[in-house]
Amino acid sequence: MLNPEFLKSGPGPRLAIIEKAEAKAIAETLVAFANTEGGTLVISSKKDGDGENKNESERLLKILKEADALTSPVVVTGSWEPVETDEGTVYALRVPRSIELHAVNDGRVLIRSDKSNRPLGGQEILKLASAKSTGDYESEPVPGATKDDFSQKIIDEYLAKRAERTKRPYNGKIDDLLREIGAIDTTGKPTVSGILLFAEYPQHWLPQSGVVFAKFVGKTPRGENGLAGYSRREELTGPLPRLVEASWNLIWSEMAVSAVVKGLEREEKTEYPQFAVREAIVNAIGHRDYRLRGRRIEIRMYSDRLEVLSPGGLPGFITVENIVDEHFSRNPRIVNGLFQWGYIEELGLGIDRMVEEMEQAGHLPPSFDARPYSFAVSLYNARERQAVPDWVRNTNHRQSRALQYIRDHGSITNREYRGLCQGVSAETLRLDLADMVERGILLKVGSKKGTYYILK
Length: 456
What we know:
Layout: E1 15-18, H1 23-35, E2 39-43, H2 56-68, E3 71-72, E4 81-85, E5 88-95, E6 103-104, E7 110-113, E8 116-119, H3 122-133, H4 152-166, H5 174-180, H6 192-198, E9 211-216, E10 230-236, H7 240-254, E11 257-262, E12 265-270, H8 274-287, E13 297-301, E14 305-311, H9 332-341, H10 350-360, E15 367-371, E16 374-380, H11 397-409, H12 414-420, H13 426-438, E17 442-445, E18 452-455
Helix pairs in contact: 1-2, 6-9, 7-8, 8-10, 10-11
């Protein structure tokens, strides 16, 4: 049975809560989850028209069949699971990510976008269809590998971390869990994701899965007389959780740290925000295209920037323009494994916070470079502006941009805010500004068309 703890975070990229069970709304959410990362659909209404809870499971099963008839192809799901909460019983339906492209019966192809289901445009549909047609590489069996190649020590560590995350230890059979998370297939053979997460040396089968780290003296890879300009070069191997830690430790050992005295306290200020660095590492390791055998992840540390290069272009419908607001992974099992390990704080929100952390520390936003067979994130160490005060740190990336605009221009209007955040609904932006007014960050001046906002 599902742990009710997962409901506390509220609706998001992996959780949809529907107040009233209607076939159309359920069909749209099934399609959106199946086309994106998968997720859990929760029906919060527990009573029928008579106000009594009668045969709810049977009623929901009937509505689910009606919803199935509104999708093409049908989204394969499990069954409704009752979840006991403080307010009573709700019903949850787990929807897996699908390797097929799904649509509702009116032709719309939907994806899960934050807390809502968004229809894709023509070019986005083509990109998503292309990503689906490549298959599900991380779930393919690895020739020559057996379950004996898994490290029991690493599996035990995963179980302990998972128990911390879910607040519930796993007491079932290990093989059942490994099959559930996609580490082994139905015949018990290790999959690509299983080997990458649980084998001591995945590079025996997947040599492309390592990381190359290089620290350069200047701003370019070339040194004097055309020679390589790096002062340190390391090749990292091991399972993905170990690669995350080893990469972080290397960067930390080479990162400049300065001291700032505030009052009577000494505060260390790192060259780059720690979360932004870890997120860049985890994104590269979790989202790279492991089908590409000729290249490993590269971490390049220059005098002015940190670059993390990941083999494989952006997946699905993701572009540089929508990377902050949309989420799609080519390796959902690997990403979920890193999430359970604790390297990802909340699924689907890392890029947002990376941008916020860089801007709030006074740096330029991260630079993203997307090419057909590679994707690079660059973090620049120069502080171009004053760091954001502590009292505005709990803002989203849109609000952070609005605050920077106000610091640069003195005020912001609704129209100017819409210009900064194109593609975001006017209502969402209005709520952003109202939230900052309510929290005492901004002061609203004027009314109607003459309204503008300043720092309070």
